[in-house]
Amino acid sequence: MSDVRRIITTQQAPHEQLEKTVLNHLDNAWQKPIADHTLRTFEATQSWLSKRSGDLILDSCCGDGESTRWLAKNNPEAVIIGLDKSETRLNRNSEADLTDNYRLVRADVNDFWRLAINAAWQPKKHCLLFPNPYPKPSQLNNRWYGSPAFPALVDLGGNLEVRTNWDIYITEFARSLLIVGKHPIVTRYYPEPCITAFERKYHNDGQELWRLNCRLS
Ligand SMILES: C[S@@+](CC[C@H](N)C(=O)[O-])C[C@H]1O[C@@H](n2cnc3c(N)ncnc32)[C@H](O)[C@@H]1O
C-alpha cells in the first residue's frame, strides 16, 4: 500500500461558507501587525533585489526550494525569490547553486506579501505550489483563499499559478478569484518534469494533479 498521504476529508464539495468568508476578508482590512524580523528580512531581500534587473518571479511556500531553483534555471533573465517560513524545509536544499538569479528567504508570507505591496513590487509571476490544503471543513480560514491574507495575494498581482492534488481546493481557489473579479483557468495536468517534492510524491503515487492560472494584474 502507498504511504503517500491522500486528501482525507469529510468535505466533498466546495465549502458553503466560502463566498461569505472571502467577502468578509475583502471588507475588513487585516490589522495583524508585521513582525519585526519579517520587516528586517524583507529589507535585506529588497536590497538584494535592487542590485538585480529582470522580471521578478515569486515562489511562495517553496519548501526546500526545488521549484525556485528550477524557475531560476529556466528563466535566466528573471530574478526569483523563494519564500518559506520553515528553516528546516529550506535547509533540505543541499544542491550547489547553479545560477545566481535566485534567493531562498525564510519568511512568513502573511507579512512578506503586505510588505511587498507597500514597496510596490510587481511580480510577473507568482507560484504557490502545493500549499497546505487544510482539508477539514473547519479549516477553511487556513486555506489561502479563505484566509485574511487573500486580498494581499490578489493585490500583489502577477500571473498566479497554484498547483494541488485536491480538486476541491482548486475549485474553491477559482471561485474565490471569480468573487474578486478575476478569470482563473483550471486544468488537470501531468508534470513534465516534477518541480517540487510534493508534486513528485503525488504524481508517483498516481494521484490527480490540478493547476490554476490567473492573471491578477
Ligand atoms: C505542503 S508544503 C509544499 C512545499 C513545496 N512547495 C512543494 O511543493 O514541495 C507547504 C509549504 O508551505 C510553507 N508555509 C506554510 N505557511 C506558510 C507561511 N505563512 N509563510 C511561508 N511559508 C509557509 C510550509 O513551511 C511548507 O514548506
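^ S-adenosylmethionine complex. The radius of gyration is 17 Å. The helical segments are 18-27, 36-50, 66-74, 87-90, 109-118, 150-156, 167-179, 197-204.
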